[in-house]
Amino acid sequence: MKTVTIKDVAARAGVSPKTVSRVINGEDHVRPEIRETVQRVVAELNYRPNAFARSLSSSRSYLLGLFIDDPVSGYAAEVQHGALLQCRERSYHLVVEPVDRQRAGWQDHVRASLSGLRLDGAILAPPICDDAELLGIFADAGVPYVLIGPSYPPRDSGAVWMDDRAAAGEMTEYLLSLGHRRIAFIQGPESHSASARREEGYRAAMKAAGLAVNEDAMLRGDFSFRSGLELGELLLDLPETPTAIFACNDDMALGALITAMKRGVAVPDALSICGFDDVASSRAAWPQITTIRQPNAEMAAAAVDILVDPAFRKDCADPAFRLMLAHAMILRGSTGPA
Amino acid sequence: MKTVTIKDVAARAGVSPKTVSRVINGEDHVRPEIRETVQRVVAELNYRPNAFARSLSSSRSYLLGLFIDDPVSGYAAEVQHGALLQCRERSYHLVVEPVDRQRAGWQDHVRASLSGLRLDGAILAPPICDDAELLGIFADAGVPYVLIGPSYPPRDSGAVWMDDRAAAGEMTEYLLSLGHRRIAFIQGPESHSASARREEGYRAAMKAAGLAVNEDAMLRGDFSFRSGLELGELLLDLPETPTAIFACNDDMALGALITAMKRGVAVPDALSICGFDDVASSRAAWPQITTIRQPNAEMAAAAVDILVDPAFRKDCADPAFRLMLAHAMILRGSTGPA
DNA sequence: CTGAAAGCGCTTACAG
DNA sequence: CTGAAAGCGCTTACAG
């Protein structure tokens, strides 16, 4: 199958390659009739520009990178899907690059993909969006990037968030409205800045209700199902048993739920449990977990839009490229009156 | 940051660009001293070949595509991760392309990525690996591909499987060994050829045990949690209640489990439930689901190896490129004696 | 074992 | 509004 090149189109349309180039890139300064003819020929010949030739001569690759810690998680799948669909809309392609900071030499892997692939931009998911060394590598390579849920609004890059603090506050208020007073909290790992924001939201809502936080009922997990299982035990062993457990993510909430079931503690009658994330498992549990839906796909899509926007490539420091997207409370069976 | 090119390396090493090219591509016919010098200079200058220039002049892109129906599923995440890591080993990159056959014009999307990206090869996941029209597009474009779990061994492409039939047989034998006789079966959708193979395995094991299959306890689901929920109801309403339910995937098994819990049917005391897949939710449920682990990441990695193998690119019809990988039974709490 | 020349398929920068 | 020339950074095919 002979590949059709820009020359073939040009010859058939009776114009120069440059004119064809103008048409396929949507540039101005082409007479309407000529534009039409070229478009017709492109369609007839089923011509597709060679992405490599284009990248080689221009400085753009039409490739975006998604850099992520754990690409197997359900979280990663949502982020990736959002990014993928938006890339497609924009005629970009997406390359997913796992970043395993446990492994020696991970920095070289990142550099290699930046220089070998000439990425036009990168999306950095949490928690690596908070890694200063990683950000430095992108800055050195001159690759613009957008962060998803970083700890602080960056000065010279784009960022997309949801309001973790507010969301955790709403969840706490909801538990309070159900009459709960002894609300235990399972923290996420310190490496994820979102867990601190969620804890703040919880504390603020407790304080606003005039309630003291019982620090004995505040335990740190690592976002894993297993840690929810174990910390659930500790919380149910407390002298003043909590009537509700607010876990910093769904996996830990699920662990706590299983612990409750094992010990014969009825959920939600004797204990309410809620999480954060709205992962698939939160729906597959019984009772289903009350949680916060994060706009993961939407944040990723927004990140793509920012990277592709010419204005962003000119001025990454413009605050317009720092976006906050809406979350949603998902009320389900795992929470009930105190 | 001025990018380092092959000429810079050549100049500094005192050789021609062609010699540098030989060294970085690991070709023969370079004197050891010279090879060493070049390698040293490459390291000093931190030189990375420009993937686009390389692709443009050779006919290779060093890019592999993963074509998948539903890129958000846990299944997709596993397949993708396996492919990603192996691509990295092989110095290839992976591009994930969702194929939504519900959407008009999906064929053009596929063609566009094949011709625009000049993929060196493609991995096709189920169920689209069984779509003749899709395979035709790849064949027309001359892009070699490897199928994951297709219905039949292809003649002119690679393929990687697990033995769904044998695995389902083993699971059925396990249930039989626990003393179960009334074993209901929840089928998967007809669009997934694996579900037919699993059903065959179940039927064969029942037959081998001299048991007739109760066709009333054989219901078709669509692999969704919801269908497990609904079909679980029907099965528990049967006049002859089954003592075990074998669902064709974990999501449906989880649905059936929730139904049992809602109705107060104790699992596994009054009812055993098992699934197929070993998704994350199967561990987050209580009791945890007995299931079959599919070697998803391993199959994807093997697919990458096949695509990258020069022998494959010469002769796709070689039966050596049809591989069967091992599965594993995962015994957990959702199954017990009849 | 090594290199000079030509070319991959586009775009950039410049003319007209 | 349109095009001829040069070049992006490599590899292929050919010499020597």
Architecture overview:
The structure is a homodimer of 338-residue chains. Chain A contains 14 helices and twelve strands. Chain A is an alpha/beta fold and 338 residues long. Chain A has three domains: 6-49, 434 Repressor (Amino-terminal Domain) (Orthogonal Bundle); 63-162 and 296-326, 3-Layer(aba) Sandwich (Rossmann fold); 164-294, Response regulator (Rossmann fold), CATH 3.40.50.2300. In chain A, strand 3 (121-124), helix 7 and strand 4 form a beta-alpha-beta unit. Chains A and B meet through helix 4, helix 5, strand 2, helix 6 and helix 11 of A and helix 4, helix 5, strand 2, helix 6 and helix 11 of B. The first copy, chain A, binds a DNA duplex (16 and 16 nucleotides) through helix 2 and helix 4. Chains A, B: InterPro entries: HTH_LacI (IPR000843), LacI/GalR-like_sensor (IPR046335), Lambda_DNA-bd_dom_sf (IPR010982), Peripla_BP_I (IPR028082).
